[in-house]
């Protein structure tokens, strides 16, 4: 198991922004403490060349983001006050997801980014705590650099919020299939059109959620998409304890979700990169434990 982690994920943010960022520091500590991961499993990502970012993001937007020239409206939409450290973090987490993809193709089988899943970022604007879209950038990196081994990509987005930025970016790219299973009445208010959207009613529980996923995923993997590579966004804001989600999954149900997705990829020998996505429960322990389950499942499957 290979894990991308950059120690600058915890930024000097105002108090209201600091809490949701704590998980990026606490999760690797938990994984090391319990023995799910060892120090040798981690790598420190490096920012990719800007030319790679420009395969996905508009040049004017990227320039303004890196140089502190976002409009007030864009800054509000991003959810973060701009800083040079924030811009550095956003570029670095792209390198984490690209690095995970490289290591998976080199034989790791699975790689996980302790960050990423920034699926609300559009090609030319930020939204919802997402400034640059890491899975989109990594997918475009694969299509450009590995056209023989990677001809079809499946993005499985199981965050409670629709992957609207990702859907928009790949709207006209047949080599990337976007699948989003999310709360129907949750953010964003205006949904984009993924290749497959499964909007869920408020209060959806483990049984209904897992039954729908179990019915859908094998058809995507074996019939409709038949991918060579999978990106999985494993947001834990599907939990009943989440402040920003309206679904009702238990922590055990969330782990079963991960077992279903990662088990299906492992069974088929598919390379898979996992990014964390959202998690906003009142107790930080609930967030970290749910995310840690994703890593435990990956470690159990790929050893």
TrEMBL record:
InterPro entries: HDAC_classIV, HDACs, His_deacetylse_dom, His_deacetylse_dom_sf, Ureohydrolase_dom_sf. Residues 23-292 form the Histone deacetylase domain. This is Histone deacetylase. One of its GO terms (biological process) is epigenetic regulation of gene expression. CDD domains: HDAC_classIV (cd09993). It comes from the Bacteria. Keywords: Hydrolase.
């Amino acid at each position: 198991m290979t894990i991308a982690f950059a120690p600058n994920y915890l930024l000097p943010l105002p108090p209201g922004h600091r809490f949701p960022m704590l998980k990026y520091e606490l999760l690797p500590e938990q994984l090391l403490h319990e023995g799910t991961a060892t120090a040798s499993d981690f790598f420190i990502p490096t920012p990719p060349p800007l030319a790679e970012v420009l395969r996905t993001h508009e040049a004017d937007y990227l320039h303004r983001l890196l140089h502190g020239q976002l409009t007030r409206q864009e800054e509000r939409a991003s959810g973060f006050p701009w800083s040079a450290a924030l811009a550095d973090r956003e570029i670095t987490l792209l390198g984490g997801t690209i690095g995970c993809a490289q290591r998976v193709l080199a034989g790791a089988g699975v790689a996980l980014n302790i960050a990423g899943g920034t699926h609300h970022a559009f090609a030319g604007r930020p939204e919802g705590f997402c400034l640059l879209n890491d899975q989109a950038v990594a997918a475009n990196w694969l299509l450009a650099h590995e056209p023989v081994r990677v001809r079809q990509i499946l993005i499985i987005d199981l965050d409670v919020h629709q992957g609207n930025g990702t859907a928009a970016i790949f709207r006209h790219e047949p080599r990337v299939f976007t699948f989003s299973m999310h709360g129907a009445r949750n953010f964003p208010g205006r949904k984009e059109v993924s290749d497959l959207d499964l909007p869920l009613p408020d209060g959806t529980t483990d049984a209904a959620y897992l039954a729908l996923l179990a019915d859908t995923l094998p058809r995507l993997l074996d019939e409709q998409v038949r991918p060579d590579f999978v990106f999985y966004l494993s947001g834990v804001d599907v939990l009943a304890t989440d402040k920003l989600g309206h679904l009702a999954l238990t922590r055990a149900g969330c782990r079963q979700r991960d077992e279903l997705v990662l088990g299906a990829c492992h069974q088929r020998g598919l390379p898979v990169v996992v990014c964390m996505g959202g998690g906003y429960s009142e107790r930080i322990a609930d967030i970290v434990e749910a995310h840690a389950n994703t890593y435990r499942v990956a470690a159990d499957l790929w050893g």
